Amino acid sequence: MSSRSRARDTIRLTGLTATGHHGVFDFEKREGQIFQVDAALTLDFSAAGRSDDLADTVSYVEIAELIHAAIVGKPFDLIEALADHLAREILRTDERLAAAEVTVHKPEAPLTQSFHDVSVTARRDRTDIDRTDIAAPQDLAQRPGADPDAAPSTEVTSVLALGSNLGESAVTLASAVAALERAEQVRVLRQSPIAKTSPVGGPAAQPDFHNQVIEIATTLSPHALLAQTQQIEQDHHRARGAENGEVRWGPRTLDIDIITYGPERISSLTLQVPHPRAGTRGFVLVPWSWMDPQAQLDGTPVAELARHAADAPGVEPLESLR
């Protein structure tokens, strides 16, 4: 029996507050107002209860980051749409989540009557996500590599995001790109300028990150590409997992994430593509937009997503862009 089928535990976030620009009226989108979000996540965290290891549960820091980015991000007309979007995106962050309940509060709603709050609640479970992610048979036939262990018949373009904030980070990123250039079945097509970014989540006292986005062409399967990037991380002294002293979103010598793999949507225990949080992370989106101003992620221009990312103001080029 899977842990998801045994899910009866709950993680709650209550009263996460930020200013957003959601609403039907023009002045709501122009001036903005306060929104609050409560989220209840259903899962089985008995393994974490026994191990006391963050790797065995879902990080509420990650969920809070996603919620905040949605509140301050692309405006919705209806809070119903915002709640639905959040519930689905939360479930997509981790396959161990069985259900998500999201309540969006709009305490400054444009009502003439005296009131305390207006809120809506969306309840979504894994079947809602599974239904929306099922492609038509003809689409699957046109998408080689949907199986994460199957190598594509022709080269696939993939976008990778690199980050480092320990040691000589700029040197480390250059070394990682060089390692990818030497790797079999991988060609580096282009790379962004290096960005200096403020840390997002994790311990407050840690050095700024250096981030870079690169585009490659590869005939490796998704899982083989993941193995290749993790080997490069290991070669640069990356220690994965809490048992090796790694803190989630903490300092690290090198981090390589697979953001896209052609047009594929991949969901396995070790890999989710497109990366489920790439669309809210300025430290990915901003350098990506420098590298490719026409790039899109799930049909939305990357440059537009970058403008709405909460952490985008903290992303700056290490050297002046020409």
Automatic annotation (TrEMBL):
Residues 126-153 are annotated as: Disordered. Its EC number is 4.1.2.25, 2.7.6.3. It comes from the Bacteria. Residues 248-259 form the 7,8-dihydro-6-hydroxymethylpterin-pyrophosphokinase domain. One of its GO terms (molecular function) is dihydroneopterin aldolase activity. One of its GO terms (biological process) is folic acid biosynthetic process. Keywords: ATP-binding, Folate biosynthesis, Kinase, Lyase, Nucleotide-binding, Transferase. Pathway: Cofactor biosynthesis; tetrahydrofolate biosynthesis; 2-amino-4-hydroxy-6-hydroxymethyl-7,8-dihydropteridine diphosphate from 7,8-dihydroneopterin triphosphate: step 3/4; Cofactor biosynthesis; tetrahydrofolate biosynthesis; 2-amino-4-hydroxy-6-hydroxymethyl-7,8-dihydropteridine diphosphate from 7,8-dihydroneopterin triphosphate: step 4/4. It catalyses: 6-hydroxymethyl-7,8-dihydropterin + ATP = (7,8-dihydropterin-6-yl)methyl diphosphate + AMP + H(+); 7,8-dihydroneopterin = 6-hydroxymethyl-7,8-dihydropterin + glycolaldehyde. The keyword Lyase applies. InterPro entries: Dihydroneopterin_aldolase (IPR006156), FolB_dom (IPR006157), GTP-CH-I_C/QueF (IPR043133), Hppk (IPR000550), Hppk_sf (IPR035907). Catalyzes the conversion of 7,8-dihydroneopterin to 6-hydroxymethyl-7,8-dihydropterin. PANTHER family: 2-AMINO-4-HYDROXY-6-HYDROXYMETHYLDIHYDROPTERIDINE PYROPHOSPHOKINASE. In the N-terminal section; belongs to the DHNA family. Belongs to the DHNA family. This is Bifunctional folate synthesis protein. It comes from Nesterenkonia sandarakina.
